[in-house]
Amino acid sequence: MTQSDEMQGLLDRAVSTLNEALDSPELSLRDRTLVALRVLELAHGTDPIEGLNTDGWELPQLTQRLTNPGPESRSASPLDARLRSASKGQPAIGLDRPHSDSAATTQRQSLAYPVATAPSAARNDQILEPTVLEIDNFLSHEEHQFALSTALNKADQFVGSKTTTNASDYRRSSILYATLYPDLYELLRQRLIGLLPTVVQQLGMPGFEPGQVEMQLTAHNDGCFYKIHNDSGSPETATRVLTYVYYFYQEPKRFSGGELRMYETDISGPMVTASDRFETIEPLNNRIVFFDSRCKHEVLPVVCPSRQFDHGRFTLNGWIRRA
Fold it and tell me: What pTM was estimated for this model as a whole?
């Protein structure tokens, strides 16, 4: 056997091994993603693809969560099990990067997320599962501090929140409109639009052409809450497709409560009702969550003993409308 034949044999074995690694259920999604990226690098020569060098990178704390029905509800379907198993300690997609203002980092951000494909959640015209996509450590330390300082420096410009139905005592919080923080709004808007294709894919939602990105900076303090509702249930809100909530607050944390509770939602024609099956999401600092705007949800009461504004729970929350 010539040296060329030996090399070809080694290459064939290497390709076979890579194929087995990419299909192996024994490897985590992180490991399979790294294998795929290395293959892409090799396919482009000895130098790593710009924006895809994984040396020193870590996968983000990105998880999918489905409702936890509890022992008395129906058993999970095979698709539910696949989604649920993907959520246990393994990221759904993407790569994390050191935060920087350099052009190289900007390019990495645009390339890093649509790397792997996770199974899509089943959609049903009658029953909407409360699928939630979470990303922890969403903003850099500097960006997080920018959001926090914006909230604290404009404390006297917050106004009482309202609902589209003007229901009495249904929502208690205060909000700051996006026109009062244009730089922070634009920072988050660009990040959301850049992530949109990946987010809707992970949530099992059909793609859509984004239009307006609505945003509020919301402050929840002692006794604040928002009862069960959805975000697209009126003629004025019907074009809202995707809801996002970015959580931030001062450390150490001086409040409790304020969890997001997502409900299985029954959609029957014009009637949209919440079932008794739900999932509760903790409002962790620097976490963002995404979910279908049709899904019923609520904000549980906040307890903040000091009642000081700067000790409260803050969110940058809003909706991406279809164009």
Answer: 0.66
Angle at 197 between CA 192 and CA 199, to 5 degrees: 70
- DSSP codes, 115-141: TS-PPPPP--SSEE---EEEESS-S-H
**Phi-psi domain of 51 (left: phi exceeds 0; alpha: psi -120 through 50; beta: other):** left
Positive or negative CA dihedral for 143, 295, 93, 85?
A: positive
Supply the DSSP string of 209-278, one letter for each residue: -EEEEEEEEEEE-TT-EEEEE-SS-SGGGTTEEEEEEEEE-PSSP--EE--EEEEEEEEETTEEEEEEEE
Question: Could you give phi then psi for residue 147, rounded to 5 degrees?
Answer: -65, -45
User: Rounded to an integer, what distance in angstroms lies between the CA atom of residue 154 and that of residue 180?
Assistant: 9
Closest CA to 287 of 260, 265, 306, 320: 260
* Cis ω for the linkage preceding 114 (within 30 of 0): no
Pairwise CA distance, residues 102 & 246, whole Å: 24
Return d(Cα 163, Cα 323) in angstroms, integer: 23
Pairwise CA distance, residues 7 & 17, whole Å? 15
The pLDDT tens digits for 126-169 are 699 989 999 999 999 999 999 999 999 999 999 999 887 777 88
The whole-angstrom separation of Cα 87 and Cα 81 is 10
Please tell me the distance from the alpha carbon of residue 167 to that of residue 23, in angstroms, as a whole number. Answer: 53
Give the whole-angstrom CA distance, residue 137 versus residue 33: 20
C-alpha gyration radius of the chain: 22
Question: In terms of pLDDT, which residue wins out, 235 or 75?
Answer: 235
